Inverse folding.
């Protein structure tokens, strides 16, 4: 199965109740052969309306951060842990993550990146399988199977927090070193 076929499967998914509230499944976007995969939490309102990840304010910040690492959005592959928007942007629930995780797993297998950048606590804990928080984990590279995983603060959390933004910018510069 390729990414387009997997996306078609996701578009028909009814495995958790989030399908009832969605406008669009937000499967993923970017290069299918990217060296870097970016993993966020779940679609927000704009993403649900447009069917594309990180198109709102957090997405603008993400684009700028990618620029610091010498990357454009089309150079990377971007996906979320959840493919459908939780109502009111509430936190993902365990059952939702369990129902959806196979899509992200298959996306990582198909894209086969060198580095996975996890944005914020949910994506980081899901991929690294840890209880530790992003404050302790950010900027430190973990090996998960064949992938190097770089946890960073979520670009939405950093929008109004100067110190988180500075840490994010430093961590995206670490990404440049990982790719050289
Ligand atoms: N926040 C996320 O985690 N993912 C998106 O796609 C948008 C905002």
């Amino acid at each position: 199965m390729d990414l387009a076929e997997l996306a078609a499967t996701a578009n028909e998914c009814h495995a958790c109740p989030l399908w009832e509230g969605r406008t669009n499944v937000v499967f993923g976007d970017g290069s299918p052969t990217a060296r870097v995969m970016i993993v966020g939490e779940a679609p927000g309102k704009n993403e649900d309306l447009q069917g594309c990840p990180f198109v709102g304010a957090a997405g603008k910040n993400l684009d700028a951060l990618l620029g610091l690492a010498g990357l454009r959005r089309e150079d990377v592959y971007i996906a979320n842990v959840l493919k459908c928007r939780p109502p009111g942007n509430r936190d993902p629930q365990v059952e939702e993550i369990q129902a959806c995780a196979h899509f992200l797993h298959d996306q990582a297998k198909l894209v086969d990146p060198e580095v996975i950048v996890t944005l914020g606590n949910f994506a980081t804990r899901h991929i690294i399988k840890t209880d530790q928080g992003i404050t302790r984990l950010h900027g430190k590279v973990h090996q998960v199977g064949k992938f190097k995983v770089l946890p960073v603060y979520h670009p939405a959390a950093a929008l109004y927090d100067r110190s988180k933004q500075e840490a994010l910018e430093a961590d995206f510069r670490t990404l440049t070193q990982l790719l050289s």
